[in-house]
Amino acid sequence: MEKIFAGVTGGGTLDYVTAWYAKAAQYIQDTKIKVAFVSTNSIAQGEQVGIIWGLLFHKYKIKIHFAHRTFKWGNEAKGNAAVHVVIIGFANYDTNDKSVFEYEDIKGEAHEIKVKNINPYLVEGKDMFITTRTKPLCNVPEIIKGSETTDDGHFMLTLEESK
User: Residue 163, CB half-sphere, CA atoms under 13 Å: how many?
Assistant: First the structure.
């Protein structure tokens, strides 16, 4: 992980599966090869999205061609540890034939939705993602102490006051 994501801001927070996406994106450069992975659904959720997909979109020019949204994937192993997964197919070129496969029930069958573009959150829309930031978006005072109560005790209630 350190070698694959060296120099990538936030790379240390990525799940192991993201390394497969990055390596595949490297290998398919200057080809017409399409790639697809079954992955834990975390690759399309939370802070990982901006990190891994920012890298894939900007450095490797990746476009998502199809996606299966979250579904339950079991196996035949003893104890059958089921996980929630997605399937994402991509290449380093675009296509007009894109599909999202949606599940009404994560244990059920998928139905196909034809879309114009699939973003990293596996919904139809522009290729955009949210990244973490430490500074405000506009001219407002910075938050200094987060959720610390520094209100001279006015937010603190006694047991009697809380009833």
Answer: 3
pLDDT of residue 157: 76
Residue 99 structure tokens: 């599909």
DSSP state of 43: G
Task: For residue 55, give the H/E element and its range.
Answer: helix 48-60
103 φ, ψ (degrees, to nearest 5):
-115, 120
pLDDT digits (tens, 9 = 90+) for 122-153: 999 999 988 887 788 889 887 777 767 666 66
Q: What is the dihedral of CA 125, 130, 122, 64, to 10 degrees?
A: 80
Q: Rounded to two decimals, what is the model's pTM? A: 0.81
The tokens for 110 are 């998928």
